[in-house]
Amino acid sequence: MRFLFVAALVVLVAPCLRSQPVPSVPDDSRQEEVGKLLGRALAEKDPNEQIRIYKDILRLDPNNQNGFNGIRTAQQKMEAEANLSAEKEKQHRKEQEVEAARAKEEESALAEADTSIQDGEINGARAALDTAKKLGGANPEITSLETRLHNLMDYKQKLRYAAYSGAALLVGILGAMVFALL
Fold it and tell me: Is the pLDDT at 91 greater than 90, yes or no?
């Protein structure tokens, strides 16, 4: 009999217990901790640390929308930083390639100027040195080649002067010989 009474009581009370939601009592200390963590996450500059803090928030409050949004925002920030870093690296590589090409072109112009000086080609040497100056600016090798070019120009001018002087002397001697024969 007693058993029947308990069974009847359970049958009558059980549906009432199931239909009523269990009241959720917010844990004030947990919410307070979530608030502190949100403040830390917002103040944090490092996205990796922000993600770690937001994950802590979600461990304390799995349905916290700020935690989900914060993780997404921090991940987007990390992706943007990675893209910016990759773009800077790409730009740096491009600048290095341009600089290497410029240096190669300058070296080629210097070699051409040296060859032209050795061959005695003043105009070719001058043009190659002008190109090297435009590409390299102040380079000790350019200064050295310019000095050699000026020495070559002086030498050629002295040869020209000697040739003209010799020709004039020869004309004078020949003229005196012709005059003496008359």
Answer: yes
